[in-house]
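Re: the multi-chain job from yesterday

Posting the exact lines I submitted so nobody has to dig through the queue logs.
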Amino acid sequence: MGATIVIFGASRILGDPTVLFLPEEGYGLDAAELEKARQKLHLDKPVPLQYAFWVADILRGDLGQDLSDRHPISTKLKDKLPPTLRLAAAAYVISTLIGIPLGVLSAVKRGSVWDIAGRTFALLGQALPIFWVGILGILIFAVWLQLLPAGTQGEGFSLKHYILPTLTLAWFPAAGYLRLMRSAMLDVLDSEYVKLARAKGVGANTIIWKHAFKNAAIAPLTFSGLLLAGFVTGSVSVEVVFGWPGIARLAVEAVQTNNLTTLSVITLMFTLIYVVVNFFVDIIYGVIDPRIRYS
Amino acid sequence: MAEAAPETTLTGRGRPFARAFNAFRRWPIVSLVLISILSFVAIFAPLISPADPIKSNIRDRNAPPFWYGQWYEENPKVTKTYILGADPIGRDVLSRLIYGARISMMVVMVAMVSGTVIGTALGLVAGYVGGITDEIITRLVDIWLGLPFILLALIVAITIGAGLLTMMGLLAATAWTPFVRNVRGEVLSLRERDYVSLARVAGASPLRILIRHILPGVTNTVLVIGTLRIGQLILTESFLSFLGAGIPPPTPTWGAIIADGREYLRDAWWVSVFAGIAIGLTVLALNFFGDWMRDTFDPRLRQV
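And the result, structure tokens for all chains:
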């Protein structure tokens, strides 16, 4: 709700959309026609009313037309959304598979080579710009070693096309998971009940996985929502660098053609995804950790 | 023997790599030196840079770094040797990097200061006044965090046009949220302290209490968050510049330099690669320094 106001505000109040929507006067459009078009698009009404029309249209499922080619945005999104979701899902799975176990390993073998390697991996993942990592990946694996394709030109979509984009997108969240998992694990391993288990003579593996891991794993889970916000930036980076045919690249292309309607709808969509995922994270969180439910 | 064992695992004594890593982490000297060098370079850019960052010399397009001696022998018409090569329209990459540091630093510092002031002020007010004011400010932060910032920034870049001021405004707009959250939390506990109650009894106005009695209590938090946040701002700035929504060309910014070299990876890898290394090193140094600040001044912020 609040989000729609901000997006609308950013796209409307800051600039007059008629200027973008219609060709300039020099293109043979007289003032009367301009006025007619403004009326058709409700642009002659006050801003709050414009906002009401915009929200009403979206609720009815009418996302509006693309400013550059006048095609309805909804059909465009239908083509572009699945590749984005596929890539994000793949990267999410990979980041969990890399970040969580490495975080545990790093905490259990604290100070070892594994720990140092894991933390270096995490520090670099949080310091390097994602788009540059993608470019570097292309340079090393596609240009120099010629092992992997550089982008997704052409129709053929194979597993090979996924490797570089997925790893690039997964690095940043994996780094986040690793750091969170490591510090949570260190906290838990230092707790009283783990010491008691150790004193009782419970085996090291049982302590790590059964006693410590279960409790420590809650911390990274709560951060899934925040990591998701990072995924938006990541998706834009990766889709631009690798020419991925998804909605994030559509958004960036929209910038080049001053395509406000498309960009606003995509922004709204990402916000919606964020809200929905956060809602589910909250539910899962409550299921896993009963203390949350009762508090 | 029993005492020595945990100590060994903590500092990684005996393993050279581990020891270096821990020295880097525990002592902010390395990061500080890096940050100082960078600031020095940024401030004295016109004195240091070997060439004009904007003047292009098309004959030297994509000239490689100096160690490609053979290339320079084969192309005697090149006007000079470039230390880090030349970009696709024949501009000196090193000079562009140096001036890029200047631009990025300036933009990020201005944005950081404004974001810090706004965020801290809102956090102070939310925490101290409470009630509906608190509710509104907290909700505002929640909504803000839920928005896909990059896309919003692109919308703004279209509607009011990309430029230096837009970029500063946008970065300030992403910088303020963590200050509100953490300062608010601190204030909630600080305002119940005895010395604050005493000040109130003594008749100090709310503004005076906030500035004289509560603000000093949150400065540590603010400084730590600020340092931890600068790195992210640099990354955001470079990304927006990379997407073409930053300061318009020919002004050199690190993100724009990476974008310049992107189409020419095969012929001139040095354009994109060095700019990325510059960003990575800067952010790494800032993150290290921020981590150290946090561990030293405000260990409770571990989860930030």
